[in-house]
Amino acid sequence: MKCTRLRIATRSLQASVIMRATYFSTTSRIALILLALISASSLLCLPALAKGSLEGVKIFIDPGHGGPDPGAVGPSGLHEADVNLRVSSVLANCLREYGGAQVMMSRTDDIDVSLGRRVTAANNWRADRFISVHHNASLNRDYNATETYVYYYADRTAVDMQEKVHRRVVEGLGLRDGQARTAGFYVLRYTSMPAILTEASYISNPYEEARLKDMGYTWREGYYIYLGIADHFGVAP
Ligand SMILES: [Zn+2]
Prior knowledge:
Elements: H1 2-44, E1 58-63, H2 80-97, E2 102-105, H3 115-125, E3 129-136, E4 146-151, H4 156-173, E5 177-183, H5 186-189, E6 195-202, H6 206-212, H7 215-232
Parallel strand pairs: 1-2, 1-3, 3-6, 4-5
Antiparallel strand pairs: 4-6
Bound molecules: zinc ion (ZN).
The site of zinc ion has 5 residues, from loops.
């Protein structure tokens, strides 16, 4: 008798454990589905443009460095060239998918492309705008800021694009405002269309390098550059 009771008690305990386990896994599954729906809806809620707003506009994107030239290297070894390519790919996708723009890139892989070939490709394609994507480095590892460059003698169109992209990236990433600046960089000097060069942050800063390894963070950087270009063309959401 005792044995039977014990067996019944054990069985009901097992059943309740199984039920609880099932309930827990169902709850977890529901929670996961809810989380997925929330993240999907927040992505869908991004203020993307209706396709077609930049239709007919030709934008050349130049991910800095590549191949044997890694660009700046972060404290733990992250290559600027890789980060530049990731941000540039997001920017290209946003311009195509949200804006309907035509996009050409100087490289879509980790390969060596000379500065001359980058400029010639943009000029031959008769791009309307040129955007070179870089990340900066400093001997002072604490330093971090957002800078955006045009050529010393840039026209008003280039300066307008510079200011709008700079503002969006500063607001979006929330780093120190390192100012919209002028420089004599080759790709800014020899391109025949309005051109800017972005240095959204300093890869030499260990904290920033860690953030630059995160795909979500570099996605946002590309998206903010896109928003600045949309502002420049007067089609921002
Ligand atoms: Zn660079």
